[in-house]
Amino acid sequence: MSILVVGSVAFDSIETPHGRVDRVLGGAATFFALSASYFTDVRVIGVVGEDFSAENEAVLTRRGVDTRGLEHVAGKSFHWTGSYLKSLNEAQTLKTELNVFETFAPKIPAAYEDSDFLFLANIDPVLQADVRRQMPKVKMVCGDTMNYWIHDHRENLNKVLPCLDALLINDGEAKMLADDGNLLRAAGKILATGPKTLVIKHGEYGATAFFSERSFAEKPGLATVPFRAPALPLDSVVDPTGAGDSFAGGFFGYLASQPEVTPAVFKRAMFYGGVMGSFAVEKFGTERLQQLSREEIDQRFSRFRELSHLD
Amino acid sequence: MSILVVGSVAFDSIETPHGRVDRVLGGAATFFALSASYFTDVRVIGVVGEDFSAENEAVLTRRGVDTRGLEHVAGKSFHWTGSYLKSLNEAQTLKTELNVFETFAPKIPAAYEDSDFLFLANIDPVLQADVRRQMPKVKMVCGDTMNYWIHDHRENLNKVLPCLDALLINDGEAKMLADDGNLLRAAGKILATGPKTLVIKHGEYGATAFFSERSFAEKPGLATVPFRAPALPLDSVVDPTGAGDSFAGGFFGYLASQPEVTPAVFKRAMFYGGVMGSFAVEKFGTERLQQLSREEIDQRFSRFRELSHLD
After folding, report:
1. A251 alpha-carbon distance from chain centroid
2. What is the SS3 assignment for B60?
């Protein structure tokens, strides 16, 4: 089934202990789309400027991603400059140039209206809610957010949360959103505010899914114990940028590729999320996500199983 | 098979967001022994002062722990005062009164000489090496250490590491010991310095075992992929004191209860470690570890499996 993703398509300038790159292709929607493209059809809604080349777009289209919803406007593309020299676990933003992204108003092409799954990447919750409203028929909606929206735009964010089948955020965001330093209690509070399921990402320690009575529509209360997927211990993290969006792409891409979202499918999707995140960080930018094979992905999936299963 | 543990038996005064307790029974050997006692016979070597009551000792003997190696001397027992008000993830030491522990010289009773397994809890590596020398016939030796010994007594510690079948330390200790901020690389470096297997504890994120060619004596190179055991998301951590020693007790206790240490047994032991750690933090001090049943333990083991397994 097809996934529609709305979010940023950008250029990133990044420094890490492994080196630096200037204006490489990035953005949440880009990482998500490339990652999900190994599992299902993906359509992108975003905005780029005149500096976005045909070759940039071909990175997406070569992976079969539908870019008809990628609006080209006058001006420069969103440009993020960040550093991981202090810590590989947390990006230090050096500069955010929103450029054409500042006035981004997502428009959904008619050809996208039959999309089955919707991913609301980390953008203004007002836009997330707007896109959600325009896609009333999707089967499943997942979304991301970040500290800025949680802290400064809570009221708008609160309107989006009840629309989500699953919210994907990290430890710090979850604790901030719930105003609770205990992760399990925080999860309970967040689930009470709307999303049916909550996926909390722990970086190098993997991710945990917390379920509610509403997680599996046809089978209320089916999964009650949280589910924790591991992350792969890596001897070299070249560039952590996009790891979370790549996780989301693997997770949601796998869900969309399956006939039904059961607890077993959801758990496998958590593993595929970790698998795609682990690939993303092996090279700068989207480089690694451009060149994978499904065989490599499934081999690493087996490794995740071996890493965490008793038998 | 029987385990001999050498380490601290102490009184702890602790404050956490859940309250405070004064001079409750604690110490690494105490937590380890109580935890391991649910799996196998345990013998303790330690030293206590005149303030250590018959009732204190009965906490151990009621669980079948052999305390003949617990030396009673004039003076006061080791007393640790700590706070978790700033963070539940890291104890803030307010006061360390070594008292009788300052001149601790472990003596091994003749009745302990046939012990099959040896656990060297976190004490001076000179004493760890001394005990190891006195127990040449044990089948397996595991050990713990801490930042203080890593930083200030490295040379002595370096003599202990090659004697260990498994070293159990936490993330920060591993990175400090290897002088490498990447956990997988750090693990490789530590394994190269001696221990056959390395278990790194991640607190609320579980623990990872890193294997070497020498991990399973009869079967070199048997396990190569690391193994990650989850921790149970808890809605209330009352007192983190002793969680690591309780992990070690569950881990080593289970190993000692099995006819052979195979990779499959080792992985199950990692789960039992997590299980016992999760119980320990539910109440202050050793309270929770005094009242468990094997049925509760195995129920929680099943929960760990459900939490982390795809099928």
Report:
1. 8
2. helix
pLDDT in tens, A196-248: 999 999 999 999 999 998 998 766 656 678 999 999 999 989 999 999 999 99
**DSSP string for residues in A123-180:** S-HHHHHHHHHH-TT-SEEEEE--HHHHHH-HHHHHHHGGG-SEEEEEHHHHHHHHT-
* DSSP element (H, E) containing A9: none
A53-84 pLDDT, tens digit each = 999 999 999 999 999 999 999 999 999 999 99
> Nearest Cβ partner of B228 from A184, A307, A311?
A307
Q: Cβ(A234)–Cβ(A281) under 8 Å?
A: yes
The verdict on a CB contact (< 8 Å) between A208 and B267 is: no
Does A268 reach chain B within 8 Å, measured CB to CB? yes
Rounded Cα distance, B32 and A290, in Å: 49
Cα→Cα distances A300→A13, A279, A304, Å: 29, 9, 6
* Cβ-defined contact of A233 to B308 (cutoff 8 Å): no
Give Rg (Cα) of chain A. Answer: 18
Predicted ipTM of the assembly: 0.91
Would you say the pTM of this structure is higher than 0.90? yes
